[in-house]
Structure formats: C-alpha cells, structure tokens
Task: inverse folding
C-alpha cells in the first residue's frame, strides 16, 4: 500500500464487497455474483495502471467503476 491508487482501489473494492455481502444475505438476491465481476476487475486494472505510471487511465477506470456501481448495481443510500 504505497500509492494513492492502492488506497483508492482498496476502498472501492471494500465498498463493493460490503454491497455484495448485504445483498447476498437477502431472502431473494436481485443480482448474481457475475454482476460484481466487472467492477472488481476494473479495480484491479486501475490499481495496476496507476502503479505503472498511467494515472489518467487509472482515474478513468476508477470513475467507470463508480459509475457502474451507481447505475447498474444501484446501492441505496440511507439518510
């Protein structure tokens, strides 16, 4: 955990894991584990790209991961 990309991708992945655990505990899960594969892969790719010196690509991958989470998985935020 040396770069900002390490920290940000782990933070996004942890949120993804918590969302998966919450949804898998439901009586009727509305999504499958396959829905979580694209953002998990994008987190790994963003971390690799960021650590390789491709900050713009890593940023785009992290933003696309967050967009996927918001628009496809649709987490509910409680106020």
Result:
């Amino acid at each position: 955990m040396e770069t900002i990309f390490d920290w940000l991708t782990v933070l996004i992945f942890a949120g993804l894991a918590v969302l998966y655990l919450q949804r898998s505990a439901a009586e009727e899960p509305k999504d499958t584990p396959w829905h979580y594969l694209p953002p998990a892969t994008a987190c790994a790719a963003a971390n690799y790209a960021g650590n390789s010196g491709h900050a713009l690509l890593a940023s785009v991958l992290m933003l696309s991961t967050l967009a996927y989470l918001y628009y496809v998985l649709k987490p509910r935020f409680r106020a």
About this structure: DSSP finds three helices and no strands in the chain. The longest helix spans residues 4-24. The helical segments are 4-24, 37-51, 55-73. The chain has a mean pLDDT of 92.
